[in-house]
Amino acid sequence: MLKAIIIDDEQSCIETLQLMLNKKFALQVEVVAATATPSQGIQLIQEHEPDILFLDVEMPEMTGIELLQSLSHINFNVIFTTAHQHYALQAIKLNALDYLTKPISLEELATAIHKCITKQKKEENSLIHNFLNQLKGNAVKRIAIPTGTTTQFIPVNEIVRIESASNYSILYFINRPKQTVTRTLKDLEEQLTPHNFLRVHHSHLVNLEHVIGFKNQDSGYIIMHGNEVIEISRRKKQEVMDRLNTM
Fold first, then answer.
1. pLDDT at 194 over 80
2. Nearest CA to 97 among 58, 132, 141, 140?
3. How many domains does one find in the chain?
């Protein structure tokens, strides 16, 4: 049986979809969680590791697209739900991704679920990753940062650099105090590398948009926004220089 999560800012839509699934697909799909709050949805995804995510495209806190962009890994099927001709809908169609137009029809729901059932195993969803890459530049990218019992969604262009602190990471911003989070630098590197971040040292990940200079001394140093100087490791120097030369 497939585990499903529903994320939709309209509670009535959640209840309608749950009713349809429970009534017609109870032997194939179990709804393990549902929420009208995207930030809680991210936590539920991490907790339940679903096979299917029913995801509303348009939500006020953050869009469904931004929610997916905030995740490090997408190893589940995504079925978008929308009541609007959203800017992303054409791209969803072109990438052969599943979507349901509200009000959802039983026939379309059955077709989408059948496609999920026929997939053999969980793996990184390359279709979704390709889709998200196509949408780069159409929306401000944000990263989910857990802070105690809440989650903040911070635009990646506000992050200047990130410093490793064992199993924690310290984030430095343009216009807000630094913040320590319970995520490793490796995890953040995987998530932020597509957004023009570069690991220049085993302890430092920098946003290349905020590099203002280079100091050619020893193995080299990056000068960041605010005149912070970050050491470049010897094994990373050539890669860093190559990237700086293309800026």
1. no
2. 132
3. 2
